[in-house]
Amino acid sequence: MDDSDVVTMTLNDVLEFEDEMIENTAAVLGAANDKNCSYNEGYLKRQALYSCLTCIPEAKTDPSMAGGVCLACCFHCHDGHDLIELYTKRNFRCDCGNAKFANSGSKCTLCDSKDEANELNSYNQNFSGTYCVCHRPYPDPEDPIPDEMIQCIICEDWYHSRHLGVEVPEDNFAEMTCAMCISKHEFLLHYDGLTTTKLSNTDEQSEVDVTAEENLNRAPLTGTLCTKPRGKSEKMVTKFWLETTWRKQLCTCDSCLKMYEQEDVAFLLDNEDPVHLYEEKSKAKAHAVVEDQNKQLLNSMDRVQMIEAIIGYNDLKENLGNYLKKFAENKKVVRVEDIEEFFEGMKARKKKKVEMTYSCR
């Protein structure tokens, strides 16, 4: 490898990457319990899940054989195993130790009383470690092209942006529904006006954008007016929904509610279902836990220890900031030797520092 192949990062790059990693981790795991199996909570609306290929190697080729385990079981029952991180899944109950794990002999060490199977759980190809229409792993060691992965809100599979068959909008979309799910749930074609996909034909567009007056003139269905637009797009392609509130504009008449249940998409009407809301709650919980831990640590100290800790922290923060500032300004890479040099200097300063005494009057 020559110098042209070496990729370097500045201090700012490292700090930004670290902050992003912390935020992403908090978004997924912040609301999860890492000590207690989630099984007794039933089918959670959304939770972080993992598929264990060590216990169920058959899942590598058949996702229906897979078992999904919660965060706590990932730590306590499957530590060191070949685990696939599934991000989050909706309406799922932890499988750890049930009949799916019978061949491995693996038992749940956190909850030993479980049904043989969780009949309402669903398993897609992600449980086998493959994604998208290309059915490849992520990250893919054989794919040199960097690409964004976007999750479909219905099937919850992840897709490479270049494999969606349509142009991905830069920022102005809230959620995505893949073309396959659109073809399965054709009622969504009536709501094309809420997506970035616009019909080019003037007459067809007018049918999609049904006015409120036209809706009121419709015949009532089982005593309730249907507000679903009468126009229907013929484009069964990936849809990017424009607003975070688009779900609230879905019709909730008796007929449509029955249809949602039959097509198993009633979760679209659940205010707590969207992933971004789960992420926001997770981040808030993670930050609250950190703050609580900090308070407990300070409360466990006496006055002298607390003052010394605060002085020490501020001293470290100020000196490290000043030391690394020159690297950021000059866009230089921070080497291990540089960090070792800094802390060696801090140790030397500490030895020379005159011990302070405190007195209370």
TrEMBL record:
Output the Gene Ontology terms for molecular function: ubiquitin protein ligase activity; zinc ion binding
Q: Which residues are in the UBR-type domain? A: 35-113
Q: InterPro entries under this entry? A: UBR7, UBR7-like_UBR-box, Znf_FYVE_PHD, Znf_PHD, Znf_RING/FYVE/PHD, Znf_UBR
Keywords for this protein? Metal-binding, Zinc, Zinc-finger
User: Which SUPFAM superfamilies does this entry report, sorted A to Z?
Assistant: FYVE/PHD zinc finger
Instruction: Give the UniProt entry's GO cellular component terms.
Output: cytoplasm
Zn-finger (UBR-type) residues: 35-113
What is the recorded name of this protein? UBR-type domain-containing protein
Name the species this protein comes from: Dendroctonus ponderosae
Its taxonomic placement starts with:
Eukaryota, Metazoa, Ecdysozoa, Arthropoda, Hexapoda
Gene name for this UniProt entry = 109542801
